[in-house]
Amino acid sequence: MSSKDRSNSKIVGNPDKISFTSYTGKKELRDWNLFNMDEVRFQVTNRIHLHNSYTHSLDALPQANKYDYWYENMYKHEKMICNYSYLSVDFPQFEFDIKEIDEHKDYRPVYKDELLLKANSFIFKYDEGVLSWDEYLDTCYHHFKDYFPDDYKAQQEIIDNLTQRQVDDMLDRCLNNYTYELNSDEIHFSSNQEYPKKVTRWLTKKFKDLRIDIDTHFTRFEIVLQNNPQPTYKLGSIFNPQLAQMTMGDYQQQEKSKEGRLHPIVLEYLENRFKDWFAKKYSTLGDDLKIDSYFSENVLHFLSSKKRQDIKWVKSK
């Protein structure tokens, strides 16, 4: 999506000023300190607080009343939060990552960015005299109404009724796209008590689809782990065989290019599954062993004190 679609702001005449159309429909000229970063963080934080408070009321309303409530109370906040999130894209001289705002982790927009950003393009028709201000507002209203979810659900309702399909779809997106960012609902899937079981089912199915035995895969990793700490990304070789032979230098180079990587969530679940497998295996044999971990060059490594000659090829219970 172009910078033009993301922002209706542009420099005109005086390079020390910025011209834009405000929410009132009037043209305004401001100093560049409009993007004072402390003020930006304050504005974003405040808008997230307000949006979150309105969300509680939205959740409680009948479906027929939800859209008008959202448009009247939440639209302006959702749009501005979205616009601010692209500030450093449109104006690289301003470094801003919206995720640095603590409150952002609890922010749950109704609309995706592309739909919110589309509304920015409507203002150009108003600027060009094609639309009146009332027509511009009417265009925005119907644009969002057409896309308002017919089955909008409160976040807690989604968590309480989490399905295996939802977890599978989320983890498949992560597996297929290293840079995939969980949406505001997916972030809270783990609050469901059955979530760990659903993740285990997903992993088990992936191993089965790839015709790889879990015990064999983990035992092989355990062997190379003896007295020789290993980066945990090698556990992901079932999804990317190159990871098994990749050196730290190669891995860090790929980290920069984002190629051939595993999504952090997929890798984390593999790590947890291996540690559980290891603990259960040696608990069954009467040994109280565990996997230690540490970071080297910002990469997590596993370490076991088990002697290589003592490894037993057994099925975990």
Helix content: 40-55%
Q: Order of strands across the widest beta sheet?
A: 3-5-4
Number of helices: 13
Which regions have little confidence, pLDDT < 50, spanning 5+ residues?
1-15
Outline type: elongated
Elements, N to C (H/E) = HEEHHHHHHHHHHEHHEE
Fraction in beta strands: 5-15%
Word description of this protein:
The N terminus is likely disordered. A 3-stranded antiparallel β-sheet has the order 3-5-4, with no helix packed on it. A two-stranded antiparallel sheet has the order 1-2. The protein is built from 13 helices and 5 strands. It has 3 domains: 150 residues, no CATH class; 44 residues, no CATH class; 99 residues, no CATH class. With 317 residues, it is mostly helical. Helix 2 packs antiparallel against helix 3, helix 2 runs antiparallel to helix 4 and helix 9 crosses helix 10. The chain starts with a helix and ends in a 14-residue tail after the last strand. Strand 1 and strand 2 form a beta hairpin.
Write the layout of secondary structure elements.
Layout: H1 3-6, E1 17-21, E2 27-31, H2 37-60, H3 63-73, H4 75-85, H5 87-90, H6 113-127, H7 133-147, H8 155-160, H9 164-176, H10 195-209, H11 214-225, E3 230-231, H12 248-257, H13 264-284, E4 292-296, E5 299-303
Antiparallel strand pairs: 1-2, 3-5, 4-5
Helix pairs in contact: 2-3, 2-4, 4-6, 6-7, 9-10
